[in-house]
Amino acid sequence: MVPAHLGGTVESRVMTKAPTQSDSAASELSKDEQSAEAPVSHKVSRFGAGVHWLIAALACTWISWCTAIGPLMRADIGLVAFGWGNAVRFVITFAITFGIVWALVSYGKHKMHRRAYTRLTTNSSPSSLHSWLSRFRLTSVGQRLARISSAIGRVAVRCTDRWWKIFLIFIVGWLWVPLTLLSAYGADVNSQAREFSWAWNQWTGLQQPYIGFFSFVPMDIYPTAHYLWPHNPVYLTDQHNIVLTVLYGAATAISRYFTGSNDAGLVTLSALQWLFSAFVCSATANRFFNLPWLHDTSRTHDFSHPERPQMMKPLDFLRPSRGMGAPGARLVSRGTSRFWIVIFYLCCPLVLFSAISLTKSPLFAFAFVWWFGCLYELFMTYRKTGAVHTRPKTVAALVLSSVVMLISAKYGWYIIVIQVVCSLIADRKRWKIYVLALLLPVILIHGGTQYLINSGKIIGGDPIESRGVQIQMIARVAKMDPTSIPQSAREKLAPIFNLDQMAAAYNRQDADPVKSSGIQSKKVSYKWRTVTQADMKQFNAAWLEIVKANPRIAMDAFFAECYGYFDVFDPPYVTMSYYINNGYVQDSSTWIKDWNHNWRDHVVHIANTWSKIPVLGWLVHGNTYVVATLLIGAAELVLRRWRALSWHLPLLVLMGVMVLAPANNFARHMLPLVFCLGFLILEFWRDSRRPAKAV
Fold it and tell me: pTM here?
């Protein structure tokens, strides 16, 4: 027998004895009797593990399906042409994605670490891979690479060990964006400026047209059905979120007053968003890199606050030379992870262009990153027993990030409410924080907006905006097989849509033309001027009849509008570079168009060229980050990291928002997942270094 302290295994420490008659009798028990004595909990655990793997397989199946039908959707052929080539594409993608999940789960279970420990304790020889790596490190090339990597790591840690250092890195690294590109925007900000201008004219006593067939006011651009308009003239809407509309509209109005154009106001707004972006990204990076809630290791234990975990512990019991530190300090990220995350934020066009883009999605995405980091701190400071200390600045940051999310995206309140429910289940002790920082802003901002709408102070958004998938199904059937539409469905739709115009306006990737959105000449398929609330009650019934009559074409429409979010081979329908050099910026602006006009085109050309490079172009495609996030989430489910999943659930909800969005593979809808993936990977690595639980 080998003593335990000399490296003996658990098995070697078990005392052996000669078999007795009772032992022989016991050994003759049938296998059925032995299995009957197995704990029921073990069977339940195995069943649960099977269910988790099944859900992970379903996630891989969805990604594989979207990838397999990608060529059919891009050619606008439809599922009728699905063949062996698509089936092979499906199988290969499933094998790759499921293999990635399996590898993540294996790593998360610490199999490699446990095997290394077993080899150490049993004095067994190292594996061939480990031996090869050891020999490579001893070579001159290996030593040089190791020294270079170590030096980069030390510099990265030194430069990112405080939030203000990270902030300075982003400010300096992003400085060329506002200086040379000034501002980026599209049609939305112009509509918001127009809304505020009309409202200001009304407030100053100027009579303007309102409801009428020949009138055309801002609410007709989106359009918003006239039955939603109050009887008294109102020109502000919640189409692009009322708070942002007032903020952007007021800035452009002040700019027009002093300079005669909107340009100065737009540049100012972009500069403020650029500063906000740098601040929230540095604050979040600091939380993930440095775990700032851990108390300074140089401090002695504070006996006046026994609930605060300041007790010093060895960073590594097997290596005393590493010194002492606060609990959790060993999980502070290494220089390599810091280096690549910072490089991503400094170089990725999705980040750079979003920093100055005046549209609601980038602002929401940056606020979401801040919010995500605050939730991570709450996740890391969770304690099952005893008092829990939460930094006041974190609570304040959680409140402010929730507010910005609510004022920038309408679906923000869904995400926050879902997170409140998950947080109360996973961390009941801090329910007051979740109610104050998450639920209260929802009640005040979302409830206040609804009050303004119901009282007739502003006009709410048209419900047709949330029916993009349905109207795309109807429009595709009307275009591809109009004779299949039942007469009863035609009669129900007649007061709402013109089917012939729907067919003519149909675009497989975008529902806006069918909704008659835009100020340019458009096909009036949506009868927003005459439709009534009673007419809209017939919409769902008509849609269901059409889908039943032609389910294949309806499914073509559904997948064509969402497959690209989960197919890494699908190029983005609208990139963030669109906001840099579109016609609104380069042609319609007053003096922005003359500031580095050719440089803006050159920057966009570089970004688009990068986007088209095979494989490397995936780094600037939002769907790459969506797929990676979904696979990591599947691995966490199999590993049963329930508390981690409780604050990762909003990422999955955002994927649902993408599926129901009015456009396919729209880059700005994926920005929250793009910005958070690096931190998500870092958190997965950090969780995998903790003691593994039975899975």
Answer: 0.86
Dihedral over Cα of 663, 274, 586, 350: its sign? negative
Which residue in the block uniquely carries the two structure tokens 């003239």?
A: 233
How many CB atoms sit inside 10 A of residue 618's CB?
17
Amino acid, single-letter form, for residue 224:
T
Question: How would DSSP label each residue in 518-538?
Answer: SSSS----B-TTT--HHHHTT
Q: How far is Cα 53 from Cα 547, in angstroms, rounded to an integer?
A: 33
Q: Do 623 and 570 meet the contact criterion of CB atoms below 8 Å apart?
A: yes
Residue 314: strand pairing partners: 324
Beta strands 324-325 and 313-314, pairing class: antiparallel
CA–CA–CA angle 599, 600, 603 (5° rounding)? 85
According to the model, what pLDDT value does residue 369 have? 97
Identify the residue whose tokens are 């030390």: 154
CA atoms of 52 and 579, how far apart (whole Å): 41
193 burial level (CB within 10 Å; 0-12, 13-18, 19+): buried
- Triad 617, 622, 624: Cα angle to 5°: 65
Closest CA to 416 of 626, 667, 622, 654: 654
Query: Which pLDDT value is given to residue 523?
Result: 74
* pLDDT (0 to 100) of residue 337: 87
Measured distance CA(616)–CA(677) in Å, rounded: 17
How many residues are present in the chain? 695
223 preceded by a cis bond (ω within 30 of 0): yes
Provide the pLDDT for residue 41.
65
Structure tokens belonging to residue 206: 């100027």
Say how far apart CA 113 and CA 404 lie, in whole Å: 43
What residues have CB less than 8 Å from 624, skipping those under 6 apart? 568, 618
The answer for residues whose C-beta is within 8 angstroms of residue 45's C-beta and 6 or more apart is 694
What pLDDT shows up at residue 335? 80
Print burial letters for 416-429: b (CB count within 10 Å at least 16), e (below 16).
beebbebbbebbee
Q: CA-to-CA distance for 357 and 239, rounded, in angstroms?
A: 18
What backbone torsions phi and psi does residue 314 show, to the nearest 5 degrees?
-65, 140
The pair phi, psi for residue 648, each rounded to 5°, is -95, -10
Residue 426 vs residues 307, 361, 642: alpha-carbon distances, Å: 20, 29, 8
Residue with tokens 């112009």: 190
How is residue 497 annotated by DSSP? B
Measure the CA dihedral 347/350/352/354, to 10°.
Answer: -170
Query: Average pLDDT for consecutive 10-residue bins of the chain (695 residues)?
Result: 38 39 45 50 73 94 96 93 94 96 89 45 45 57 71 84 94 96 94 94 89 79 91 91 95 95 96 97 94 61 46 48 48 78 95 95 96 93 75 94 94 94 90 93 94 93 91 94 93 94 92 84 83 93 94 94 94 94 92 94 95 94 96 94 91 93 92 95 86 41
Dump strand ranges (E) for 298-453: 313-314, 324-325
Question: Would you state the structure tokens that stand for residue 564, as one six-digit string?
Answer: 């690209």
Structure token pair of residue 584: 């609104």
The three-class DSSP label of residue 663 is: strand
Task: Phi first, then psi: give them for residue 309, nearest 5 degrees.
Answer: -80, 80
Give the residue among 356, 376, 354, 375 at the shortest CA–CA distance from 365. 354
Q: For residue 676, what pLDDT is reported?
A: 95
Q: Which of 468, 476, 463, 457 is nearest to 528 (CA)?
A: 463
Backbone angles phi, psi at 385, to 5 degrees: -130, 155
The span from the CA of 44 to the CA of 365, in Å, is: 40
Cα separation, 350 vs 574, in Å, equals 12
- Hunting for tokens 């031996």 — which residue is that? 131
